[in-house]
Write a structure and sequence with these properties.
single chain, 83 residues, alpha+beta, 3 helices, 4 strands, elongated
Length: 83
């Protein structure tokens, strides 16, 4: 069993985005691992393993427009099922 079940990926498009501030918010407010928040002040790519992907989406939507959202169930994938 995985500690964090959902592989959550998305793009945030906005203005004055700060990848360091986003990283800090994730590490202090969300439980998960494998965080990747990289980009520039107009576009940030997020990759994060969590059990509550809806919370990630909720937060990210406050920063700008979110799109290319992919949430995969890694537990199902590990059992050979479609994630």
């Amino acid at each position: 069993m995985l500690e964090f079940r959902y592989d959550t990926q998305l793009l945030i498009e906005g203005k004055n985005l700060n990848e360091d501030a986003i990283n800090d918010y994730f590490t202090t407010h969300f439980k998960g691992d494998c965080l990747l928040a990289v980009g520039d002040d107009e576009l940030i790519k997020i990759h994060f393993h969590t059990n509550e992907p809806w919370e990630v989406l909720k937060y990210c939507s406050t920063l700008g427009e979110i799109y290319d959202i992919v949430i995969e169930d890694m537990d199902r994938q590990s059992r050979g099922l479609k994630g």
